[in-house]
């Protein structure tokens, strides 16, 4: 994980305050202002995990069916709503569906001393 000083460099994008993402919640981000979230963050068992918003099964298809809807109803797995693949929120490993055994692409995150969440570009 990066240091606080590194997070303030141009290699990092500020996303939000870390405490704005509650336990077993997800939130998407569009840091390049492209009109579609390119990454999302999940808080799972107290830890924040960042993922590229791209399903490994369907050529990088977006995962959510509506804004910030990356988790199943039980909030225990990340779901690709295009075809129902299920991924573990902490490892990105697909455990159910056509891309079983593949993984989501991890995005490195850091929370600075002020509680701000940053993602590596």
From TrEMBL:
Q: Does the keyword Iron-sulfur apply?
A: yes
**Please, which domain of life does this record's source organism belong to?**
Bacteria
Q: Does the keyword section mention Iron-sulfur?
A: yes
The protein's UniProt keywords, in alphabetical order, are:
2Fe-2S, Iron, Iron-sulfur, Metal-binding
List the PROSITE patterns: RIESKE
Pfam families associated with the record: Rieske
Q: Which SUPFAM superfamilies does the entry link to?
A: ISP domain
Q: Which CDD domains match?
A: Rieske (cd03467)
Question: Any idea where the Rieske domain is?
Answer: 12-119
Q: Which InterPro entries match?
A: Rieske_2Fe-2S (IPR017941), Rieske_2Fe-2S_sf (IPR036922)
Return the protein name.
Answer: Rieske 2Fe-2S domain-containing protein
């Amino acid at each position: 994980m990066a240091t606080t000083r590194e997070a303030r460099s141009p290699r990092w994008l500020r996303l939000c305050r870390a405490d704005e993402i509650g336990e077993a919640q997800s939130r998407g981000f569009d840091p390049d202002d492209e009109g579609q979230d390119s990454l999302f963050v999940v808080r799972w068992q107290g830890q924040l995990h960042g993922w590229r918003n791209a399903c490994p099964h369907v050529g990088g298809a977006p995962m959510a069916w509506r804004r910030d809807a990356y988790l199943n109803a039980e909030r225990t797995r990340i779901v690709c709503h295009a075809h129902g693949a299920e991924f573990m929120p902490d490892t990105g490993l697909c455990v159910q569906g056509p891309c079983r055994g593949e993984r989501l692409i991890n995005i490195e995150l850091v929370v600075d001393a002020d509680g701000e969440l940053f993602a590596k570009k």
